[in-house]
Amino acid sequence: MTEQAPIGSGFGESTTAGEIIKGIDLSGKNAIVTGGSAGMGLEIVKVLAGAGANVLVPVRNADKAKEALGGIPNVETDAMDLMDPSSIDGFAERFLSKNKPLHILINNAGVMAVPLKRDSRGNISQFSTNDLGHFQLTARLLPALRQAHGARVVSVSSRIHRLSGFNFDDPNFERREYDKEMAYAESKTGSILFAVELDKREKANGIRAFAVHPGMVPHSRVGKEGGALNRFATKLFTAFAKFFVKKQKDENGRPIKGGAKPFFKNVSQGAATAVWCAVSPQLDGMGGIYCEDCDIAQSVPENSRGEKGVWPWATDEKKAAEFWSLCERYTGVS
pLDDT tens digits for 273-312? Predict the structure, then answer.
């Protein structure tokens, strides 16, 4: 695992995905982006395809995906639902049958702070989609990732992981009252633990893994599964803004007394860190890390009240191994 400390990438919170990809040629590279037909995922697809990559987007609704992705060169779609294990297996089998290497896998799809809903196996939707579905997809695609001899797997997490470690005793809220925000936080801690353990297990096979906080992106559409995007997203982003603010400064760089505003990103800025982790040569030889604002995040102590960083329960290697084993049990995928 790479040390959790910034490397001075030269980029920042305002950097766009287009600025990250500038000068990078992905011709001949194959990529898969989940949630790639809307919001940040769509921006990631456009940027990777624009740099020459062949991008495959798993979709649940082919008509909506065609409307969003139509006209973008080098982009194809195939059916998949992250809450349906057989659908994931079918998608992976079809890709593997082409005997092509997979250079980039971006696990971007997700649901946020949604009402209680369970998949066919009884798992809550946020754990099922954000963690188990992506675990199964990545595991099934390992042969293609290994074939690339230098693949990267990027999992979109969130700074909300600071609210909670992963609850190994009751991941599906069977013995406690369901709390949609806490379920989201736990699932995003899981996304980081997944990246830590995947990197540890597969770096010898040329696969490096990363988890990212994209930033606060009101138009990412990550909360659409709840059926009331604006209500849930606004509530959560407002709560975030109380903790994570960008201080206003005057023309001389001095903080304005009482001046603070939340730094919301547009979709291109939100997509930038995932793209940076997927393609940047600055990260060659690195992995198993959590990144934000197009740089490696600083590790912070458990009691930290800072705006940024990664909390220790998300990068603990023992917890990462435990999380991996739990995902194996819940998915039946070894």
Answer: 999 999 999 999 999 999 999 999 999 999 888 779 999 9
Q: What are phi and psi of 59, to 5 degrees?
A: -140, 155
Q: What DSSP designation does 122 have?
A: S
Cβ neighbours for 142, distance < 8 A, ≥ 6 positions apart: 202, 207
Residue 152 structure tokens: 């990267």
3-state secondary structure of 331: helix
Q: Which element (helix H / strand E) includes 306?
A: none
* Cβ proximity of 131 and 124 under 8 Å: no
Q: How far apart are CA 199 and CA 203, in angstroms?
A: 5
Sign of CA dihedral 109, 57, 226, 239: positive
Antiparallel, parallel or unpaired: β 289-292 and 207-213: parallel
184 is catalytic: yes
Which of these is catalytic: 178, 184, 290, 330? Answer: 184
3-state secondary structure 170-238: CCCCCCCCCCHHHHHHHHHHHHHHHHHHHHHHHHHHCEEEEEEECCECCCCCCCHHHCCHHHHHHHHHH
* Spatial distance between the Cα atoms of 172 and 267, rounded to a whole number of angstroms: 31
The CATH code that applies to domain 17-331 is 3.40.50.720
Considering the entire predicted model, what is its pTM? 0.89
The number of CA neighbours under 13 Å toward the Cβ of 204 is 3
Cα separation, 301 vs 25, in Å, equals 39
Task: List, for residues 135-150, the tens digit of each pLDDT value.
Answer: 999 999 999 999 999 9
The residue ranges of every structural domain in the chain are 17-331
Contact 197, 323 (CB under 8 A): yes
